[in-house]
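In this section we walk through a basic example: taking a raw amino acid sequence and producing a predicted 3D structure, encoded as discrete structure tokens. The instruction is simple. Fold the sequence below.
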Amino acid sequence: MDTDHPLVAEATARARAEAFAYSCDPVTGRLLAVLAARVPPSGHVLEIGTGLGVGTAWIVSGLLPRTDVTVITVERDAARSARAAVGDWPDFVDFRVGEVPPLGLGPFDLIFADAAAGKHEGLEATIAALAPRGTLVVDDMRPMPDWPADFAERQHGVRRALFAHPELVAAELADGSGVILATRRG
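The resulting token sequence is shown next.
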């Protein structure tokens, strides 16, 4: 895996230039690349919360040189999505603006829930969009002292829901920002 992939470097530079503080950290990014590399032939990947494309770039770095996959990345902020879409992205990456998860799409072999829309507001819909044996990645799960109380409670609610869900097998990794991996039984 190339941790200096040009798309990762470009997206990271874009996020830094805009002082965008919500991109996934490099530990999570490397994990995304590893998980993307195991997506089956003709697989489908969903990223919820494009931001400025850092997570998307890590996912793509794990997929290339393959072209048999589909990556859909969804962002609520149209201007931010347009800025993320700038660059030399492979044709299999589809930048979308709207609510998530996109209804009627899926199932997905890998879902990265990097925004509230995929974990706080729509967790059940996100889980429903997972293919059997598909993997859900939820980041920013390591409690931080500066978290507002309401955010901390929402994150704890996500944690409880993932570990208690009868269709999921979940594990929490404390590295980086903290990640919960959950695989749908099937």
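Looking at the output, two observations stand out. Residues 21 and 77 are 15 Å apart (CA to CA). The first strand starts at residue 44 and ends at 48. In the next section we compare this with other chains.
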